[in-house]
Amino acid sequence: MLLTLIVLLPLAGFLANGLLGNRLGKPFVTVVGCGLPIVAFGLAVKSFLDLLAGGGAPIVETAFTWARIDGYAFDIAFWFDRLSAVMVLIVTGVGSLIHVYSTGYMKEDKSYARFFAYLNLFLFFMLLLVLGRSLLVLFVGWEGVGLASYLLIGFWFEEADNARAGKKAFVTNRIGDAGFLLGMFLLYWATGTLEMDRINAAFTGPVAPAVSASLVGILLFIGATGKSAQIPLHVWLPDAMAGPTPVSALIHAATMVTAGVYLVARMSGVYAQAEAASQVVAMVGVATAFFAATIAVVQTDIKKVLAYSTISQLGLMFVALGVGAYSVAIFHVYTHAFFKACLFLGAGSVIHALSGEQDVRRMGGLARKIPVTFVTFVVATAAIAGIPPLAGFFSKDEILWFAFASSRGGAPWLWAVASATALLTSFYMFRLVWLTFLGKSRMEPEVEHHVHESPWSMTGVLAVLAALSAVGGFLSLPHFLEPMLPLPRVPEHLHHFETPLLVGSILIAFAGLAGAAYFFGNGAARATRVRERFGGLHRLLAGKYFIDELYERMLGRPLTWISEHVFLRTGDRMLFDGTLHGLAGLARRTAGVFSRVQTGNLHLYAFLVVAGMAISLAWSFRHG
Amino acid sequence: MDRLQILLLLAMALFTLGLAGVIVRRNLLVMLMCMELMLNGVNLSLVAFAQQTGTMAGAVLVFLIFVVAAAEIAIAIPIVLVLVRQRRTLDADAYTDLNG
């Protein structure tokens, strides 16, 4: 009952806000929109305590049977184990905080009720995703969060660019979903069930299902690349920043984009048997991590930097998944949710203070003017950079360690690339701090005049998230998850590398900080010189490796051409319209000929009737 | 020629007369009257056959036709009246608005 209630509360909020919100006013929307997620969070904590009291045995709740086909019942069932517990707590906890923040951030917006309705809808689907016992329920949530994401990216749809970004996110996700669906079909065909615990048991059991685990793994991973913005489907996430900033924080950083990581961790039974698929996951992950980090170094839009940073961090999570350290990936999901939400909300607070300015080239010197935002932003930055003892340090260090030492695909080169990513992460994040908050002001005088600290509903949330980013790492999540997601074995002879690597990752974090201070500390003079020296490289990075342009040219234009010439002109206009118009014209012409008989003259009609009778009589006499 | 044959010939004559009238005459009222002639020709044949076979069905049918004919006239005369009020003529050729 409890689990069903957790899922349904945000849905109730969506219905209330969506149907009545505009009529009942902002106080109602605020109470319902924030209250229900908070209650859901409370219930999640209660369920979590129940789980602990039960010694970690999964809590199962069947809401109802959706369909019964060939004797197999497709149940809408919820499954609450250690992994879902962590995810539900993140989703409802961070989600509630961001709802509270939104009350301040969206205060002036005319579509206040619609915004909260969408946010609640997102929470509903996200909870369905992480609580579903069967892949089917997970898939409904998976598609639902995609829908909510689409609605929220295009929230300010009056501007065509925003609507286009939403569409891009949706379409890109569909490509991944095709892979996910195929994987699901294959699993059902091979194991006869879609319940994930049963699938995992089937793959780890004595008789392996008659299907290649790697094939299934790769198909599911294609779905994950779409949702979690990995190469080659990463292109939608930077554009998704067109949505309101709380949305970027909640959906496009803390929760939804980690759904792919959750999926792989949830299906760990399959991936544990799928060596090739795991290698693909690790490789795609590390490539994405590095490549996104290099782009983030030169971006000038504060939200774009954070977006690429998100892609990069997601890549690191996939590295952990690829080397079999599933619980470590979830650990990073958990710490990342805190500091990235804090960073995005901090960025939102900056944008709020500067009346909508997002370009860091027109910021600077904000530290004194908005101190709370500054302090929380720095804490979160230090956390993502991996400076001990903040949260990011623990999870990232574990990822690096397993990338190096795991017996299931760990390798020195993997560690090297991941470490380079960590270095870049630290560098570009502190660069962002310098450009935004330190140095001299580069703001327009008029904007500078209006700079103000955000209301307490925003700064309070920032403070909570900063505190969690600071101490969240002390909770050893991998240890908590160990009973269901054991860590991979580390070969004996590698154990003595652990301390040097630990020191190494601390050095990397500080090296990034030092590099940012060196290049951007002095009014960014040195950085400008470097940029001029390597103009070509800068253009390549600033242009995001021109992936969008490549897709446009390789896929977009040929598809448009085919649609235009083959489908529209030849197919639709010539074949379909031509046939129909031809038939209609034929009917009209024939009718034209026969309509001449209809003279309207009664005598003629009577005569024709008699003539017809006479002819039929004559005919019946002759043949009768 | 026995009685039945004479009656049937008479019925046929009535019917043909009516039919010719409907086709040939231009006056709407006359056309209606001719239609009544046709109906009565049919009535006559029905009665004659009923007499011949000694059953009642034909005679009953005649009453039915009376009723139908009365109803038909009750509708047709007002229609003709309305038409005449519009065009001030009884000539059927004036009313060819329903041509195709």
Structure write-up:
The complex is a heterodimer of chains A (624) and B (100). Chain A has 624 residues and is mostly helical. Chain A has helices spanning 2-53, 82-105, 112-131, 135-153, 160-191, 196-204, 213-227, 236-239, 245-254, 259-266, 268-273, 275-298, 302-322, 326-353, 371-385, 391-405, 412-437, 445-450, 456-471, 477-481, 498-520, 525-533, 535-542, 547-595, 602-623, and strands spanning 59-69, 72-80. Chain A has a two-stranded antiparallel ribbon with strand order 1-2. In chain A, α1 (2-53) crosses α2 and α10 runs antiparallel to α14. Chain A is globular, with a radius of gyration of 30 Å. The mean pLDDT of chain A is 89. Chain B has helices at 3-24, 28-53, 57-87. The longest helix of chain B is centred in the last third of the chain and has 31 residues, at 57-87. Chains A and B meet through α25 of A and α1 of B.
Q: Which key terms come to mind for this protein?
A:
heterodimer, A: 624 residues, mainly alpha, 25 helices, B: 100 residues, 0% strand
Helix-strand blueprint:
The complex is a heterodimer of chains A (about 625) and B (about 100).
Chain A lengths: L1 H52 L5 E11 L2 E9 L1 H24 L6 H20 L3 H19 L6 H32 L4 H9 L8 H15 L8 H4 L5 H10 L4 H8 L1 H6 L1 H24 L3 H21 L3 H28 L17 H15 L5 H15 L6 H26 L7 H6 L5 H16 L5 H5 L16 H23 L4 H9 L1 H8 L4 H49 L6 H22 L1
Antiparallel strand pairs in A: 1-2
Helix pairs in contact in A: 1-2, 1-3, 2-3, 2-9, 2-14, 2-19, 3-4, 4-5, 4-9, 5-7, 7-10, 7-12, 9-14, 10-14, 12-13, 12-17, 13-14, 13-16, 13-17, 14-15, 14-16, 14-19, 15-17, 15-19, 16-17, 16-21, 17-21
Chain B lengths: L2 H22 L3 H26 L3 H31 L13
